[in-house]
């Protein structure tokens, strides 16, 4: 992207110099007659090009939302100033004074309109709906992805299988947070950050997923959670996160959320009374003779008379199932 901008700016700068030479040539001067005129024209072209590029660089961090807010503020301020200056009170008196009063009204009104519009640009979509970054595709559900979901990594497999929405949005501040984690001196944090960035790159390569980076200015919001919720609200999107507290905060503010852990738990096969399967017994149970094993989803399996087979794989049959706070607990008997 930086290389592209450099090429565009260099091309524009060259056009400014060529344009200055063409203006000098159109004026009918010759090099032998007016070399100073040629230098003046070329210097003017160089100066104009340089100033334009400097303005471009200065406005680098100015968002589309901010530009639209400024335009709206200028328009509303100009309209208000025009209505006030059309008052009959400003038709009588010294023409010079009336001109200065009207000019002052325009400057003050346009300034106030611009400042007010910029301060409220985050909620500006309530006034002019087209400013809101609403996706054009109405048949796909947009999903905003947070840092925890990218670090977890399972989102790539889910998207690749086609179970996830085709429109994913990753805010720029999420990428910045991943980069900050990847640059950490702590090896574990560094590995997590790099994994998140790797997953992000892998998502970009999926043909069935449209991944976009959200670049909008989010005003004075400093908390990442508040920014994520605001982006999801603005896009009318769902929020994909593994952060339970963020999910509850989003739900409180009317934002639907997705949790990969909830999906994984829902997809785990459930055991039922009479089902037979093999399980590895790893420790003794609470009562005498019992042995404990665990299913793939973490559900505890209690095997009666299985203590002698701890450290081995036993073939068992489910005799009862007890719901618990951590899931479901299955009581089984050995099949010899």
TrEMBL record:
Cofactor: Mg(2+)
Pfam families per the UniProt record, alphabetical: PIN
Keywords linked to the UniProt accession: Hydrolase, Magnesium, Membrane, Nuclease, Transferase, Transmembrane, Transmembrane helix
Domain TRAM intervals: 270-336
Listed transmembrane segments: 7-26, 38-59, 66-85, 97-118
An annotated Gene Ontology molecular function: nuclease activity
PROSITE patterns: TRAM
Full protein name: PIN domain-containing protein
């Amino acid at each position: 992207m930086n290389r592209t901008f450099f090429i565009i700016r260099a091309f524009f700068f060259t056009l400014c110099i060529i344009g200055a030479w063409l203006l000098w040539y159109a004026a009918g001067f010759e090099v032998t007659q007016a070399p100073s005129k040629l230098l003046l024209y070329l210097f003017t072209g160089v100066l104009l090009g340089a100033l334009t590029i400097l303005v471009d660089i200065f406005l680098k961090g100015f968002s589309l939302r901010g530009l639209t807010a400024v335009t709206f503020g200028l328009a509303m301020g100009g309209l208000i100033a025009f209505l006030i200056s059309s008052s009959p009170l400003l038709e009588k008196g010294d023409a010079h004074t009336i001109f200065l009063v009207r000019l002052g009204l325009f400057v003050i009104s346009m300034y106030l309109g611009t400042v007010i519009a910029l301060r409220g640009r985050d909620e500006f979509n309530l006034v002019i709906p087209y400013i809101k970054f609403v996706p054009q595709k109405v048949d796909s559900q947009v999903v905003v992805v947070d840092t925890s979901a990218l670090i977890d990594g399972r989102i790539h497999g889910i998207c690749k299988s086609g179970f996830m929405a085709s429109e994913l949005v990753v805010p720029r501040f999420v990428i910045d947070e991943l980069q900050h984690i990847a640059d950490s001196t702590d090896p574990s944090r560094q590995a997590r950050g790099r994994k998140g960035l790797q997953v992000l790159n892998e998502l970009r390569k999926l043909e069935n997923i449209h991944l976009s980076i959200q670049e909008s200015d989010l005003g004075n919001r400093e908390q990442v959670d508040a920014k994520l919720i605001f982006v999801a609200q603005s896009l009318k999107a769902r929020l994909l996160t593994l952060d339970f507290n963020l999910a509850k905060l989003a739900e409180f503010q009317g934002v639907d959320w997705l949790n990969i852990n909830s999906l994984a738990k829902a997809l785990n096969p459930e055991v039922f009374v009479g089902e037979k399967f093999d399980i590895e017994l790893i420790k003794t149970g609470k009562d005498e003779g019992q042995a404990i094993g665990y299913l793939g989803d973490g559900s505890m399996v209690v095997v009666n008379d299985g203590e002698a087979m701890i450290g081995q794989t036993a073939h068992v049959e489910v005799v009862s199932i007890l719901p618990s706070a951590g899931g479901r607990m299955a009581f089984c008997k050995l099949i010899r």
